[in-house]
Amino acid sequence: MNKIKFLLVIVLAAFMACDSEEVFDEQEQLAIDRQLITEYLADNNITAEQIGETGIYYAISQSGTGDNAEFASSVYADYRGYLLDGTEFDSGTIDFVVGAGSVIQGWELGFQELNKGASATLFIPSKYGYGSSRQGTTIPANSVLLFDVTVVDIR
PPIase FKBP-type domain: from which residue to which, for each copy (predicted)? Predict the structure, then answer.
């Protein structure tokens, strides 16, 4: 019983220590990210399609062939990830299953718009990337992520 009281005191103290002015508003951040992406697209004269109301955009630079990737498809792709200011944070080749949760949600949704051989740029709001979490020293919290991707194969 004393352990439960102790845990309740710790939880209550942590709750009281939270500054109400620092409460993260995911919808507000999504609106900011959408604005940043649409400004980037306009400034760079890029035509892109939005995926539903997500705020994720994609611009196909080379069309592929066949069916688009879908839930449970295994996608093999080359990629380069960078921030809006051009800072590259990752590149390489990846093999993942759409819907397995092994990649960021922006990829789960974005790759479903692409087929084998397609090359595109994905513009991903922070909500569908790493959110309010900082990733290492390169990706600040609430960062819009851009990925140049090429779908090598879909199985």
Answer: 72-155
